[in-house]
Each structure stands twice: as C-alpha cells, then as structure tokens.
C-alpha cells in the first residue's frame, strides 16, 4: 500500500520551487502537465495546479484561496536537522508561526507554506 497527500497550488512551478527545490523532495512522476508526485520518505506528496477562486467540489460555495487558511489536515515533516530544514523553508517563502524548543520533547515549528497550507517541522528529541 502507498500513501500520498495532494496539495493544491496556484502555479505548479511555484509549488515545485518550494517543495522540490527548497525542501528537497525529489520529483518521481508527472502523470499530467498539472500534477507532479514528489517522494517524501516512504510516502508521496502530489502537487496539483488549481487556480485561486476555483471551486473544490460541486455543490459548494467555497472557493480555493491561497492566503493563510486553517485546515484540520496538515503534513508533519520529521527531520534530523531541524534548524536547517526550517531555515530552508522560511527562506523559500514559508512562515514560521510558532516554534518550541527545549525540554524532553523534540523541537517543533508550526508553519505555513507560501500558499497558505499549514505544516509542522518536527526535529529529534534532545
């Protein structure tokens, strides 16, 4: 069984600059011109180009928007080099909204990608 999470982005090349280039997730497939699969550990992340203002589903009044938004589903990146990964993400346009370090728990940063999607960076425990 394979696991994949798909992320809507307004422009595929912008999504690739962040997730592939800045976060280091290699491209493994491009089944159609507007959809790319990236390797993320033992899973995959799909980036799909969807324009701002388009409807995510029939029968809804909701529209896609790419400013910061809350969603109950997000990705946690468990990394060995917490500071390097977080620095690369922020330098590529992510926002670090909260950061917790120290104590017995691993460091964690609550972030948003350049498209408003939340994600966390989780380091290793001290």
Sheet having the most strands: 4 strands, mixed
CATH topology of the largest domain: 2,3-Dihydroxybiphenyl 1,2-Dioxygenase, domain 1
- CATH superfamily (homologous) name of the largest domain: 2,3-Dihydroxybiphenyl 1,2-Dioxygenase, domain 1
Instruction: Give the helix proportion (percent range).
Output: 10-25%
Q: How many strands appear in the DSSP assignment?
A: 8
Poorly predicted spans: none
**What structural category arises from helix and sheet content?**
alpha/beta
Order of helices and strands: EHEEEEHEEE
Terminal Cα span:
33 Å
Numbering strands along the chain, what is their spatial order in the largest sheet?
A: 1-4-3-2
What number of structural domains do the residues give? 2
InterPro entries: Glyas_Bleomycin-R_OHBP_Dase, Glyoxalase_6, VOC_core
Protein name: Glyoxalase
Organism: Methylocystis hirsuta
Domain VOC: 1-124
Describe this structure in words.
By secondary structure, the protein is of the alpha/beta class. It folds into two domains: 1-51, 2,3-Dihydroxybiphenyl 1,2-Dioxygenase, domain 1; 67-126, 2,3-Dihydroxybiphenyl 1,2-Dioxygenase, domain 1, CATH 3.10.180. 17% of the residues lie in helices and 36% in strands. The strands form two sheets. The chain has a four-stranded mixed β-sheet, with helices on one face. A four-stranded mixed β-sheet has the order 5-8-7-6, with helices on one face. The N and C termini lie far apart (33 Å). The mean pLDDT is 92. It comes from Methylocystis hirsuta. InterPro entries: Glyas_Bleomycin-R_OHBP_Dase, Glyoxalase_6, VOC_core. This is Glyoxalase.
